[in-house]
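To: structure desk
From: M.T.
Subject: fold request, one chain
Message: Could you run this one when you get a chance? Sequence is below, nothing fancy, just the single chain.
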Amino acid sequence: MSSSIHQPHDKFFKLSMGELQVAKDFLQAYLPSKLLCKIDLATLKLEKNSFIDETYKTNEADVIYQVKLAEYTAYIYILCEQQTVVDPYMALRLCIYTMRLIEAYHHQYPTEPLPLVYPLVVYAGEKIWDAPLEIFSLYGE
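Reply: Done. C-alpha cells follow.
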C-alpha cells in the first residue's frame, strides 16, 4: 500500500504525527477521557500502513498507531480530512478503512482476538461538521 501524500499540509500532518511526543500530546488533548485512561500511551507505536482509497489520497492523510489497551492490542486511526466541504458519508468511509485495518491485522495474527480501532477525524474545513459521526445514522428510519 502506498503512503504517498500529494498536498503539503498532508505531508506536514503526517510528519508531525510521526513524532511520538507530538502524537501523545495530540491524543491526550483529543481522545475522550474514558478511552485515554484505559490505554497505555507509553506503548504507542506508529504503523506504516495506509487504508485510504486512491480517490481520496489527494485530500486526505491517515496515521495509524498501535497501543495497548489493558492486555489487548488497539489501534487509533487518525484521518486528516483536508477538504473544505463536509462529507455526509465520512462515517461510511471510516467504517471501510477501519475494516481494512482489522482485516490486515487478522491476516497477520489469525488466532488473536480482533483489535479495537478508534477512528478519529481531523477536519480542516470552515463549516461546522454536521455530518453523521457514526454509520448507523446513514441508514433510513
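Reply (cont.): The radius of gyration is 15 Å. Let me know if you need anything else for the meeting.
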